[in-house]
Every structure is written in structure tokens, then in C-alpha cells.
Amino acid sequence: MIGFGMFQVMFFLVFALVIGVFIMGLVRGVSQWNKNNHSPRLTVEATVVTKRTDVSHHHHHHGTGHVGHTSSSTTYYVTFQVASGDRMELHVDGYEYGMLVEGDRGDLSFQGTRYLGFVRK
Asked: Where are the domains of the chain?
């Protein structure tokens, strides 16, 4: 019965690790959201330097059979360069991503790491 006791310990450790990682991610997300809320809203002249996407694939299984489906989600990022030469990569929605073109110049509005908008000049 030693094997069964070891299994319980290992199961608990893995479970605790998964819960710990989830809680850490949640705390980081809430912390960043709070930091953004307390940051000033700024508008600066900027140039669109580059754009990128991050595609995540998700596999969903239903029950014990092999029936399931796959879905994907895309996250959009745009890198802006300001007059000082500093660059910042901000998460934007799909519509904004499609409207922005590398080389566009204009006024970038943001709050912390939160993208608020871009108006071309």
C-alpha cells in the first residue's frame, strides 16, 4: 500500500502546482490591470514599426470518445516607435490591427500597457 500513499502525495503536489500557477497568473493579470488604471492616459507622436500575431490552438474533447473539435484564437500586437526612439508593443483588437500599416505616423494614445487608439496624420 506504500505505492497508493505515494500516488496520493504526487497527485496532491501536481494539483497544488496547477492551482498555484493559475493563481499566479490571475494575480499578475489583476496587478497589470490595476497598474494600467492608475497610469496616466498619454498621447504621443508615434510610428507603426511592425505588427505580429500569436495564434493559439485549442483541442476540445467531449466525453471518453474520440469526438471533439479544434478551435483557435488570434491575439494581435503592434509595435510603435515614439520620437525618443523607444518602442512599445501593445495588444490591439483585430479591427485596429487590420487598419494599421507599417510606416503609419500619427498620435498614439495609451494608458500603461493598454492601447487606446491611433490617429493618422
From this structure: 1-38, 41-121
* E strands present in the chain: 41-61, 68-82, 87-92, 105-111, 114-120
User: Which three cell numbers mark 71?
Assistant: 478551435
- For 69, residues 6+ apart whose C-beta sits below 8 A from its C-beta are 60
CATH class of the domain defined by 41-121: mainly beta
Lowest mean pLDDT among 16-25, 48-57, 67-76, 101-110: 67-76
| pLDDT confidence of residue 104 | 97
Q: Distances from the Cα of 19 to the Cαs of 13, 31, 60, 118, in angstroms?
A: 10, 18, 21, 39
Distance CA 79, CA 74 (A): 17
Q: Which residue has the cell 505616423?
A: 105
Query: In this structure, are strands 87-92 and 41-61 parallel, antiparallel, or unpaired?
Result: unpaired
